[in-house]
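Quick one: structure tokens for this chain, please?
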Amino acid sequence: MFYLKSFCLQHQAENYSHPQICFFHVLFKGAALAFYILSSLFVNSFVIIFVVTVPLAALDFWVVKNVSGRILVGLRWWNEINDDGGSVWKFECLDQKSLARMNKKDSWLFGWTLYLTNLYISVTEKMMANVLPRLTKDP
């Protein structure tokens, strides 16, 4: 019981070490998803929805790759071109000592926002693949 109580108090006192980065990480994900979901209520043009959603998703990708991924969880990746023109992907993460010092709340937020947005997109795509053909069939 003592262990559980001290564990809860320890994690309750822990705060985000990079609140601005966490905010923008969630903001860009939320902006892309919210616009995609809500835009069909106000805009009838698929082209406009697509043209606005793609840059929002690109901004989200850039923030995750270059800012929040690096600072919140210590991930880094890039592409290099060899002398013979081949493409080589490089992946880096922090060593174990540095990972142990990472803020648990920051890494939790990073991981769960990635997971939940991908889950939402997957469920929505499956639902659309099953529902849309039935709606367009002749009775």
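The longest helix spans residues 104-136.
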